[in-house]
């Protein structure tokens, strides 16, 4: 089984970016933790980060042909703006979990709405990098059941 982890804009700057909000771990730290977890579950991990909306749309399309069973996505700022990425997820019809490091509901009102949450299998926000591990475990266990 394969799980694709997608991270949106500015998440390549984690560790250096507003650490009081997003913490000190880098994206590399997050992904290497997920690779270890993937080994435990015997799952293949695909990892993708982009700052460009169209690249994320195209990576999601590719997931239809590369045997991706589950997607974990932090759309970052596109959470609040991107009908295109939402539509891409609906197009491929692969179950996904939406993850945010920060609790978007506790922040500025423009972050309260997500274009993804009503399509997601689950949403995790506010638990920092642990949210990715929890999402991965939830996805891996669903795949084991099926
Ligand atoms: C974020 C929250 C978004 O509002 C923000 O634009 C991000 C990161 C988070 O992980 O907390 O870039 O998705």
From TrEMBL:
<dbReference type="InterPro" id="IPR036441">
    <property type="entry name" value="DHquinase_II_sf"/>
</dbReference>
<feature type="binding site">
    <location>
        <position position="111"/>
    </location>
    <ligand>
        <name>substrate</name>
    </ligand>
</feature>
<dbReference type="GO" id="GO:0009423">
    <property type="term" value="P:chorismate biosynthetic process"/>
</dbReference>
<feature type="binding site">
    <location>
        <position position="74"/>
    </location>
    <ligand>
        <name>substrate</name>
    </ligand>
</feature>
<dbReference type="GO" id="GO:0008652">
    <property type="term" value="P:amino acid biosynthetic process"/>
</dbReference>
<feature type="active site" description="Proton donor">
    <location>
        <position position="100"/>
    </location>
</feature>
<dbReference type="GO" id="GO:0003855">
    <property type="term" value="F:3-dehydroquinate dehydratase activity"/>
</dbReference>
<keyword id="KW-0028">Amino-acid biosynthesis</keyword>
<comment type="similarity">
    <text>Belongs to the type-II 3-dehydroquinase family.</text>
</comment>
<feature type="site" description="Transition state stabilizer">
    <location>
        <position position="17"/>
    </location>
</feature>
<dbReference type="InterPro" id="IPR001874">
    <property type="entry name" value="DHquinase_II"/>
</dbReference>
<dbReference type="GO" id="GO:0019631">
    <property type="term" value="P:quinate catabolic process"/>
</dbReference>
<keyword id="KW-0057">Aromatic amino acid biosynthesis</keyword>
<dbReference type="Pfam" id="PF01220">
    <property type="entry name" value="DHquinase_II"/>
</dbReference>
<feature type="binding site">
    <location>
        <position position="80"/>
    </location>
    <ligand>
        <name>substrate</name>
    </ligand>
</feature>
<feature type="active site" description="Proton acceptor">
    <location>
        <position position="22"/>
    </location>
</feature>
<comment type="subunit">
    <text>Homododecamer.</text>
</comment>
<comment type="pathway">
    <text>Metabolic intermediate biosynthesis; chorismate biosynthesis; chorismate from D-erythrose 4-phosphate and phosphoenolpyruvate: step 3/7.</text>
</comment>
<feature type="binding site">
    <location>
        <position position="87"/>
    </location>
    <ligand>
        <name>substrate</name>
    </ligand>
</feature>
<protein>
    <recommendedName>
        <fullName>3-dehydroquinate dehydratase</fullName>
        <ecNumber>4.2.1.10</ecNumber>
    </recommendedName>
</protein>
<comment type="function">
    <text>Catalyzes a trans-dehydration via an enolate intermediate.</text>
</comment>
<dbReference type="InterPro" id="IPR018509">
    <property type="entry name" value="DHquinase_II_CS"/>
</dbReference>
<keyword id="KW-0456">Lyase</keyword>
<dbReference type="GO" id="GO:0009073">
    <property type="term" value="P:aromatic amino acid family biosynthetic process"/>
</dbReference>
<feature type="binding site">
    <location>
        <begin position="101"/>
        <end position="102"/>
    </location>
    <ligand>
        <name>substrate</name>
    </ligand>
</feature>
